[in-house]
Fold these 3 entries.
Entry 1:
Amino acid sequence: MYNQEITETILNGEDSFNQFKEVILDSKKLSEEMVAFSNAEGGNIFIGVADNGEVKGLSDSQIHSFNQLISNTANENIKPPIYPITQIVEFESKRIIIITIRKGINKPYQTSTGLFYTKSGSDKRKISQEELRRLFAESKNLYADEEILMKTDISDLNLQLFYQFLEKKDSQVFTELKSGRLLIETILKNLDLIDEGHLTLAGNLLFGLQPQKFSKSFYIDCVYFDGNDVSTNRFITKERIEGTFSDLFKQSIHFLKSTLKRYQDSENFNTIGRLEIPEETLSELIINAMVHRDYYINSSIKIFLFWDRLEIRSPGKLPNSLTIEKMKSGISIHRNPILNSLSQYILPYSGLGSGIKRALSYYSHIEFINDVLKEEFTCILKRKELKYI
């Protein structure tokens, strides 16, 4: 890290990626900070810098002692061990230690006393059970849509809906099922829709009789606000959409088609007019939110319409190494492989990961925000001033 970068960091103060410590007194406190960075996005600990940004510096004996403490803490007080990089830097004629902790690849990390931490702004906090499950899943390549819903069984499936899907997906298997040569349980098991006699999350979301009975937070909140501020208590219309994947998609599109403005692109005023935001774009973004959201987070998808914009908020940041630029170019990572594979037979969805690219091709006025701290991905579509409504 260069002096100019250090200067800017210290001037900006502590944040999610940089922590200041005048001294380190014991391995317990240090291990908690290291664990928090490892379970988050990584970061730096500046030793010899006070909380207010004043550079205090370190003596030779302190540098020797702290280096030993850092090494021992990383190896002995954190499970699994981490491998930080330490630098001794001369800054403002004083020496400080910068500990760089990389984003962990074997999450979740814990202290030797069994405590799990992550970053929360410039501070740290204990990890919730929900977050802990998600971190375990990330490290072991587990998928939320494969999870078994223990309170369910095959009687909770809408079999008529499943038959319609199966006939479209594989007519030969459907014929063998109807003739009795194949059991429904075998087909459902092969498609990862049931496991050990219970529905998986994917089975419930796609074909459940009452999906929200067993997956209570997985619905869509639609609100048309009377203004441009989400904190206002005034709204024009509000709706909670529940049901299967097909229901969520169709009703969300209906909500937007009934609230967005239309404009005439010809002299024939007897036509219904075109939506201010193309339906193709709306479809791609809603499907993207449904298929690729993080189902380890118990929260709803939110469709918020304001006077000047439309926001589609999806629980979960972008997975792993995926960035907004990669996503816009058509690269994707499948967070929910069962939903990704089977949704193409239920929704207008290709499953190829190019939905964002297609959405932009129909409507370019879209901003994407990957909020790591809030664990939320948001699509913001600017509404244009229209001449003829």
Entry 2:
Amino acid sequence: MTETDADRAARLLHLRHAALEKGAPLALPLTLASMYHLPGDPEPGVPGYGRSDNPTWTALEDRLAALEDAPALVFPSGMAAISAALFATLKSGDRLLLPADGYYTPRSLAARFLDGLGIAVETRPTARFADGGFEGFRAVLVETPSNPGLDIVDLAGVSAAVRQAGGVTIADNTTMTPLGQRPLDLGADIVVASDTKAPGG
């Protein structure tokens, strides 16, 4: 039986309830602390310092992981997630393909930082993203639908072609959210999103 988007959303609602102890608040309390009481040495699974973990964002990661059926890591912004994915994937001498008409900040990041690191950056319009193939690209960042034009790409086809060419597909799923599209199920290697947009508001 295939799980539907409605099934995933319903399961998400019950994640917190399943772990509640008697007397615990039903709504997830927000933890605003940056420091935690730590008698002795830090222990695995116990919050130690706000820069490395926080119960609120751990809960968010758990919920995103449930929606994606994959591990999730939250960042302060979608662009921070894109930056982490690009810097973790690319090195000097690599080639990167970006959408020419998608969210502009990845192109700004590429011009400001990646070019200087010896990473060759190319762009293509979203509607013709697969034209020319993907041979020689270490990473391909794709948005579907694109922001703001809402052009679409055959994500499964692009992901398969990128993988066959030896590259990594990074899918920006900000517009669709995991309730509308699950890029990992379509062959993408990494999913990034600005979740303060569609899912959060």
Entry 3:
Amino acid sequence: CMHRNDNLYLEQFAIDICNHFMTTFCQVAYVKAYVQEVPWQRLHEDGVPHIHSFICVPDGIRFCEAEQCRNGPLMVFAGIKDLKLMKTTQSGFEGFYKNEHTTLPERHDRILCGELFCKWSYGECKDFDFNCIWKKIRECILEAFAGPPDCGEYSPSYQKTVNCIQMFVLSRVSQVSSFLLMMFYFSNSEC
């Protein structure tokens, strides 16, 4: 895999680690590198950047993994974790299977709040711009979750929302060969 410009992205750094161990040490049979980027931003006071202080702004943590067996293909995965999302309307809980053990009533309008974890794999690694792909996937997740800014988009269930996000990403980002999404639901008191 190659990156398209001189910026070193997480994925390329993980790939470089794998390549280093595979080419430097003949006794190494398997390498797995995990890299994550914590979203730190410089503190500002009255518009002036602080000389040495930062704040963690948790709008999702970017991570990646690269792994390789000797004489095997290089596998690259990327993802987002700890991304908290909330819809205050346009979300329901209806149309689900019911039996004698069902206690929850259907709801047409409710708050949907959760924390998202997603991980995807790239197919055959070519000259990918990993940063551009990561940003596009994040935009797809937010668009599929929220819908248009002026009216939103109704979803009858959490499960439908998760499925729509997965399908939207796979339809828009051809470099992704598989996509796993988990969204941990929070009750209203946890939001």
